[in-house]
């Protein structure tokens, strides 16, 4: 089974969830982000997209993020947005993501309330949801620049180091061909979910923090 970003926190061994990438960040019932300095603190960004199969580095940027025609976040949409760091605490991440989710909810975006008050329904593509995304764009957290391929010239090398670190610490995974996420190498993992989350956070800091350069 494959797993996407899961954005910090909750890699979700049992439910490998998505994290939109940025390390620090992700998706799924427990939250998660393939890389993601800890995957967006669980319920925050993690739960946003619901359970998926691949763990993604974007760990943290939901599909609702405004993007330019080239696929990268529009420059004018980044001004004033909260900037996450590789070493951002879970509490800080939660605060930013909760504020963004609350804004969407207040403006009519559908939520997956059964998953928690801050779980965004990523399948809501209604005009109301799109209007809410536009209105709340200024509250959408920016992932750490180290996790952004467009801003980190060493991204692919760092990602390979990240995958190597995960495996060396007992989290057996295989990187996707484009380094956008990973899948479990086996359906059975020796590490508990909490242990996987800790390994993921530590490896994100080690690989993307410049220690290998």
Walk me through the structure:
The structure is a single chain. The chain has 213 residues and is mainly α. Helices cover 28% and strands 5% of the residues. It has helices spanning 75-78, 90-106, 127-135, 155-168, 193-208; strands at residues 2-3, 55-56, 173-175, 181-184. Strands 1, 2, 3 and 4 form a four-stranded antiparallel β-sheet that branches. A hairpin with a 5-residue loop joins strand 3 (173-175) and strand 4 (181-184). Helix 2 crosses helix 3 (127-135) and helix 4 (155-168) runs antiparallel to helix 5 (193-208). The longest helix is centred in the middle third of the chain and has 17 residues, at 90-106.
Write the SSE topology.
Blueprint: E1 2-3, E2 55-56, H1 75-78, H2 90-106, H3 127-135, H4 155-168, E3 173-175, E4 181-184, H5 193-208
The major beta sheet can be summarized as: 4 strands, antiparallel
Tell me what portion of residues adopts beta-strand conformation: 5-15%
Helix content: 25-40%
Q: What shape does the CA trace take?
A: globular
Secondary-structure class: mainly alpha
State Rg: 15 Å
Arithmetic mean of pLDDT:
73
- The beta-strand count equals 4
Termini gap: 32 Å
């Amino acid at each position: 089974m494959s797993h996407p970003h899961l954005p910090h926190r909750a890699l979700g061994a049992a439910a490998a969830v998505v994290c939109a990438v940025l390390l620090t960040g992700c998706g799924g019932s427990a939250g998660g982000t393939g890389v993601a300095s800890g995957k967006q603190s669980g319920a925050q960004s993690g739960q946003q997209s619901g359970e998926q199969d691949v763990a993604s580095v974007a760990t943290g940027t939901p599909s609702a993020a405004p993007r330019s025609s080239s696929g990268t976040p529009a420059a004018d949409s980044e001004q004033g947005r909260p900037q996450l760091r590789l070493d951002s605490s879970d509490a800080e991440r939660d605060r930013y993501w909760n504020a963004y989710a609350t804004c969407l909810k207040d403006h009519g975006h559908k939520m997956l309330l059964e998953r928690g008050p801050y779980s965004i329904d990523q399948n809501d593509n209604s005009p109301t949801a799109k209007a809410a995304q536009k209105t709340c764009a200024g509250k959408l957290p920016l992932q750490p620049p180290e996790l952004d391929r467009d801003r980190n010239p060493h991204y692919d090398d760092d990602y390979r180091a990240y995958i190597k670190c995960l495996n060396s610490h007992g989290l057996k995974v295989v990187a996707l061909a484009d380094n956008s996420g990973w899948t479990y190498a086996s359906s059975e993992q020796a590490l508990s979910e909490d242990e996987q989350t800790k390994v993921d956070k530590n490896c994100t800091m080690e690989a993307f923090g410049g220690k290998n350069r």
